[in-house]
Amino acid sequence: MSRKGLVLFSLAGIFWGIPYFLIAIALESFSTPTIVFARTAIGAIILIPYAIKTGAFKPALKAWPFVLLFAALEMIGPWFLITEAQKHISSGLAGLLIATVPFYAVAILALLFKDRTALQPVPLAGMAIGFLGVGIIIGIDSIVGDTSVIWIGAVVLAALGYASAAIMANRKLGEVPIAGTIGLSMLIVSVVYSIPASSFIPQEIASNPPLESWLAILALGVVCSALAFVIFFRLLREVGAVKATLITYVNTAVAILLGTVFLSEPITPGLIAGIPLIAIGLYLSTKRPGLKKIPRRFASYGDPSS
Hints:
mainly alpha
């Protein structure tokens, strides 16, 4: 990997590993609808002018039904589920569960589309091992700890939404420039969440949130929603889809590290037992035979918000 590729790889891994930490901070002062509204509104303000300038916005408008579906699968549902779930589970666990997106992509391609590349033994084995790791985390931590299975399930559902959005975008939005797709998607999501957020924002502002809460919201919009996409797409052009998907490991490490060091989140027995299996599963499921049908632009989402 070139020096430029290494820099882009590091930045993408970090920028898509910190949203869970920032969400935990923002939740101390803001509601879930406010957080989703603010980060998408900020992202739209940054990306839409760029998309208009580069001619990427008009194609996205023409494909608006599929952009709307993408926005629902990628942001409207998942970003609410992840943010709300972090009231009940650790940021590190949320990051780890979202890192399993490739498993669901392989499963969808294999089960729904009968894709031969996804039906290869190696990616299928990786998917099975990864699911086993997730199951171990849920089983152990629900027994020996206070981890809520419901909210773990919410994050898993968000990861499934990410995988579905990626495959749908590959099949229906392949010719639409990514800046237009993401910019218009964020605009749609911000409009959707402006209604529920409006009932919380006056009270939240009146409560005089601390500076760190405002900075967390700003960073979620600028760094984790807009800038991270730009960096990741440059990484794809520099190193290719296969190497780029390896940022999944960095995302997870960053999420767990920040949660442990700055939020005093424990490393639970379930995480200790499940992380090695998920890591092995990710490696096997993201081998080239299982990635050919996953679009280069959407092959590895670390924030959903990845």
